[in-house]
């Protein structure tokens, strides 16, 4: 799952009038967090060092506040067929207790947002959009509900979301749930959800995440999240659990090759260019954007025409950043722009620069040598298969 419309920006030391706080703001302040404006929310950027927090997630576990994300509930007899019309994925095939990554698109196939949908019961789903797109997504979903026997409502104001990510995540969560629920945690598959109890409170526990590590995301009421946050920090201390901000979340998701809305995904791109095999053209429903996406597929968008999202691994020491031009290094177009970086930085885990970029399809094969123009000087990179990093299973 992705996050919001921009990478972490400058830190803030006070609550600006136009920034929103999560229910955990006081917990972050008590831990000495530096804050940033992230999609209109005052979110923790880091607590100590982004490198320390990044390595904690890769080596032990990190604790994240994700309460800026949206929660939209869909319920009713037509819930499945409605979602199959509103979104590009086939939600009728999602089993109860399972989750699905999907997109909501415009009529022209452009991506309004990427999101995760959980099937809670036969006729009820929980849809989690990105923070800055929540209102846009909810408005589109409300409009698309016309004619269906379904209710759609936004419960984001009352729900918090926190995550434990890393190799020790299962051990930490298992140590806090009731004894008779430890098998739920241990046996919960990836992209699945179930209900557990921590500190007497019922929590929707999902085995999902945005870091490339094993981990869990937890949904519960705002007035109960502070106690859960403190219980996790206390219970996870012996496992190396570290509170983590959005700076390391961005470097973690980049290593894992996960797209960020506003960087890799936008209304100007389709799923085919982004390399996301999530469009269910085999389903019966005439979902929003279907005709445009069928045409894009027929034209070979992202395969034989247009541009494709690729991974670039640095052969030197300087990193490319979002917006930097990507240049051809050979052939008739040597030295000319053939794409643009969407996200890039040095990889703390791998020890060299990495980037994602949209490049013309003829330059998208792994092994292709390209330059990134960093302040007027070409830096050597090579196209590689995403992700850059895979955890040991």
UniProtKB/TrEMBL annotation:
It is an enzyme of class 2 (transferase). GO terms for cellular component: cytosol; glycine cleavage complex. Gene3D superfamilies: Aminomethyltransferase beta-barrel domains (2.40.30.110), Aminomethyltransferase fragment (4.10.1250.10), Probable tRNA modification gtpase trme, domain 1 (3.30.1360.120). It catalyses: N(6)-[(R)-S(8)-aminomethyldihydrolipoyl]-L-lysyl-[protein] + (6S)-5,6,7,8-tetrahydrofolate = N(6)-[(R)-dihydrolipoyl]-L-lysyl-[protein] + (6R)-5,10-methylene-5,6,7,8-tetrahydrofolate + NH4(+). Keywords: Aminotransferase, Methyltransferase, Transferase. Substrate binds at residue 217. The keyword Transferase applies. The glycine cleavage system catalyzes the degradation of glycine. The glycine cleavage system is composed of four proteins: P, T, L and H. This is Aminomethyltransferase. It comes from Nesterenkonia xinjiangensis. The gene is gcvT.
């Amino acid at each position: 799952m992705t996050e919001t419309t921009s990478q972490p920006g400058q830190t803030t030391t006070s609550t600006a009038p136009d920034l929103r706080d999560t229910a955990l703001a006081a917990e972050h302040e008590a831990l000495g967090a530096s804050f940033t404006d992230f999609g209109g929310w005052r979110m923790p950027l880091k607590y100590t060092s982004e490198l320390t927090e990044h390595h904690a997630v890769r080596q032990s576990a990190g604790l994240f506040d994700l309460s800026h994300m949206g929660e939209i509930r869909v319920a009713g007899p037509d819930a499945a067929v409605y979602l199959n019309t509103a979104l590009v994925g086939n939600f009728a095939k999602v089993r109860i207790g399972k989750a699905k990554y999907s997109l909501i698109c415009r009529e022209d196939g452009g991506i309004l947002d990427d999101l995760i949908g959980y099937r809670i019961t036969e006729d009820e789903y929980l849809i989690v959009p990105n923070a800055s797109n929540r209102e846009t997504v909810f408005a589109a979903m409300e409009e698309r509900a016309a004619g269906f026997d379904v209710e759609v409502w936004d419960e984001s104001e009352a729900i918090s979301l926190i995550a434990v990510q890393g190799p020790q995540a299962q051990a930490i969560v298992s140590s806090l749930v009731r004894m008779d629920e430890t098998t739920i945690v241990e046996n919960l598959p990836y992209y699945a959800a179930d209900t557990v109890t921590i500190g007497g409170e019922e929590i929707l526990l999902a085995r999902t995440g945005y870091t490339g590590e094993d981990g869990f995301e937890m949904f519960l009421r705002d007035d109960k999240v502070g106690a859960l946050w403190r219980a996790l920090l206390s219970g996870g201390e012996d496992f190396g659990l570290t509170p983590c901000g959005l700076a390391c979340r961005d470097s973690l998701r980049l290593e894992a090759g996960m797209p960020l809305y506003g960087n890799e995904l936008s209304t100007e791109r389709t799923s085919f260019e982004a390399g996301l095999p999530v469009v269910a053209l085999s389903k019966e429903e005439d979902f929003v954007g279907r005709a445009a996406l069928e045409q894009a597929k027929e034209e070979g968008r992202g395969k034989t025409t247009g541009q494709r999202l690729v991974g670039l691994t640095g052969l030197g020491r300087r990193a490319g950043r979002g917006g930097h031009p990507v240049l051809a290094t050979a052939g008739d177009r040597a030295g000319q722009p053939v794409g643009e970086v969407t996200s890039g930085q040095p990889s703390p885990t791998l020890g060299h620069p990495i980037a994602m970029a949209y490049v013309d399809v003829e330059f998208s094969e792994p092994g292709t040598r390209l330059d990134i123009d960093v302040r007027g000087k070409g830096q050597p990179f090579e196209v590689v298969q995403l992700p850059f990093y895979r955890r040991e299973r």
